[in-house]
């Protein structure tokens, strides 16, 4: 490892991606500065990103977080696909042969709190209520103006500036990055329901309503998330028990976008600041954590200039996969719906197809991190 004692690193954003980057740098002896406009980790009521895949657990093992996530998370055994209640296909994620489950479920707030607690052991604390207001000087010589909650300000010139500040990234917008792509016409809706008794949490479920889709994802032993393209989806839910309460509801649009370069000059992007896509496949947070781990390793090796070339192929591949899965889930034309219902059951007789899908769900379809020994 080369000495990086001469560099200063400013990370904008303290979500899962920013926290992971800070932790991965800190455990390698490089203490970054991390700022965020929020007042703390995401609310535990707003479960947000849920899926933690096997690649993420592999990446977080050296930092000591993977075991803590496994202790709290729900491992998913598979995905059941139906059409108006009629079974079509079951994808058995429990067939994945790795050190961790292909996919586990843990609310984003819990993941962030575990990352934050571990980061604090390296005496690094995010600067809450601190906003990146402007970035002047361009990507070659960024000069960042920070504004705090009390309206006090500060201007800093970091050696490396990292935008992990989400889909509306100020860093990306200020430093000349392009963000091409397109938005889907479909709106998506979600609601989390808590029940007074345990529910089946072994499988995630997707029912094609022809047209439209209604999915059910276990969150906790007594909490389920429903996600749909149908505004009246709540009237279509068949609850396992009478719900005690609706803990969260949201609606959102889906876009497929990624930057043409993950870095320009001394500015680097990770997570939603660099790429956004459909939540289908549970790749969003995981892909961002992967960005963060690769960037931390490259910085520690003095090879950060290779970041964009190494990460963009993986980003493009995941966006292609999620676009395909989203298109499959949101079909509307009668002929396409008929073909889907006839073709999906055939996949049960194609083991290589299921293996490829499970590998993608596990996040193992991107390059293996070279700083981690292969175990499979």
Automatic annotation (TrEMBL):
Residues 7-197, 242-301 form the FAD-binding domain. Keywords: FAD, Flavoprotein. It comes from the Bacteria. Signal peptide: none annotated. It holds the Pfam family FAD_binding_3. The keyword Chaperone does not apply. Its cofactor is FAD. PANTHER family: BINDING MONOOXYGENASE, PUTATIVE (JCVI)-RELATED (PTHR43004:SF19), TRK SYSTEM POTASSIUM UPTAKE PROTEIN (PTHR43004). This is FAD-dependent oxidoreductase. It comes from Mycoplana ramosa. The lineage of its organism: Bacteria, Pseudomonadati, Pseudomonadota, Alphaproteobacteria, Hyphomicrobiales.
